Amino acid sequence: MKPSDFPEDIRDLILPSSEGTMIYRCLGCGSEHGIDELLYVCPDCGSVMMLHETSGLAAKKADGPTWRKILDYRRMLNIPALKGIYRYHEFLGPVVPLDAVLYLGEGHTPVVEANTRLQELTGARFFFKNDGQNPSASFKDRGMASALSYINSLIKKGSMKEILAVCASTGDTSAAAALYASYLTDGIKSAVLLPQGKVTPQQLSQPLGSGAKVFEIPGVFDDCMKVVENLSSRYDVALLNSKNAWRILGQESYSFEIAQDFDYAMEDMVVVVPIGNAGNITAVMNGFLKFYEAGIIETLPKIIGVQSHHANPVYKYYLEPDTAKREFKPVTVKASVAQAAMIGNPVSMPRVINVVETYNRLSEKKNVFFMEVTEQAIMDCELLANRNGHIACTQGGETLAGLMEAVKQGLVTDRETAVIDSTAHALKFSGFQETYFSGTFPEEFGITPNPELVNAPEDVKAEGLTEFPASGAPLTGESFERFVRLTADAIATRLDLARQTS
Question: Which family does it belong to (predicted)?
Fold first, then answer.
């Protein structure tokens, strides 16, 4: 649909332009800095920062009901720059020109309601939001579309050239960074640092396929993160981890999409997300806050963050009910199937603390909660979800386990509807499924396969057959007909099928 076909009252608002004023604001000392260069930490105190639009652009352009109309009509556009996360241009990076926006198919991932059986087992009505259906098969594409679009705008202005984009990763960040950097063929290359032996083969293959330089180093993600932080502080590189505020900004689109997909009615809604480096839960809360302050939604949904008991620093921090006594302490992580959440010292913890306080204050009640789940529950819930028509990754299993725990604790009631996050595609973690089915998990995971969830292929060689087809040596004639008939009968017997009566 073309903008000229839209209602007159919003026609001039449909296509956004590069406008507004954005700044970095430090969460430590409160200082503000311009965005003409990429900053990852405050130059004054070294704390992490968040991006803010300071001109009140969204409020000046339209009120809440009008914004709903604008965003709903933008759904019908066939303009690539507005088909992805930048449909919400004014709420993400309004200073980014549309001709600098990278769109590789990210965003607007489906929300799929769980079937009746799974909802009954869980004790709640809920939907999976399948962020594994992004281009590199994870939610990290949202942040990369934002970060690389902004870098692209700097390249186009001549402010940056010959950029090396770097990141530390447990898999998904590296895949997304390498993919988006490879699309920008002029002036940008990418390098990723991975913890040796801690990334699945499927995830390792992605940055390699996109042409990135891949370095595996000893240790865990936190160690890789320290190395790239050191690189970005001493060398001319573009850091693409969640210290990059543009990364976090793009992930706010997750909240905007949920609001729009549920017709902006957020009363009695619960959003459950896994916590890794704490950037995503920060972005999810901040996204809902922006829509709430603009009047697009009238209620802030309940937020539940979930961590494995093998990597639970945020959960432990919020165990202390007295805010004055809370003290953040990093933890030493143990082996986890939720690899993207296997982080003991989240970079975005200061952002979480800041945004949780604001979110609860504007909700006028405690509205952000944290759950801890076991590795056993994560793996069982991933398989349970996928046995019921989903494509959940291990982080998706983590959020389902978190929702079940929240229901058990009475935190989610039968009048509420939940949206839970499957951050990546199940195929990225197929190795864990194979390990579960074969019963070969190392002891440190603490996972024992549930026989009801175990599955394996069965060899079929029908009794009475002496000849079998092979590659390059097919059967023919009566031999082939006999093979087909007896094999079909053997399978029917195993499946306990009844013969047709007519």
Answer: Belongs to the threonine synthase family.
Q: Are 444 and 334 in contact (CB under 8 A)?
A: yes
Cβ–Cβ < 8 Å for 23, 33: yes
Nearest to 69 by CA among 20, 110, 17, 8: 8
pLDDT surpassing 80 at residue 46: yes
Q: Domain with 220 in it: what CATH number?
A: 3.40.50.1100
Q: What band does 186 get if pLDDT is binned at 50, 70 and 90?
A: confident
Does 474 lie in the same domain as 441?
no
pLDDT tens-digit map of 345-385: 998 899 999 999 999 999 999 999 999 999 999 999 999 99
The answer to whether 316 and 250 are in contact (CB under 8 A) is no
Question: Is residue 8 assigned to a domain?
Answer: no
Say yes or no: 318 and 347 in one domain.
Answer: yes
Max Cα separation, the chain? 84
Residue 105 lies in a domain: no
Cα 417 to Cα 301, 334, 340, 403, 427: the distances in Å are: 10, 33, 26, 11, 27
Count the domains in the chain: 3
Same domain, 260 and 338: yes
Dist CA 194 CA 75 (whole Å): 37
Inter-residue contact 398 to 381 (CB < 8 Å)? yes
Assess whether pLDDT exceeds 90 at residue 187: no
Q: Are residues 364 and 438 in the same domain?
A: yes
Residue 28 one-letter amino acid: G
C-beta of residue 197 within 8 angstroms of C-beta of residue 218:
no
The DSSP annotation for 413-480 comes to: -TT-EEEEEE-B-GGGGHHHHHHHHHT---GGG-----TTT---------TT-----BTTB---HHHH
| Domain-embedded: residue 106 | no
Tokens of 51: 């991006």
- Do 131 and 143 share a domain, yes or no? no
Range of the domain at 206: 139-249
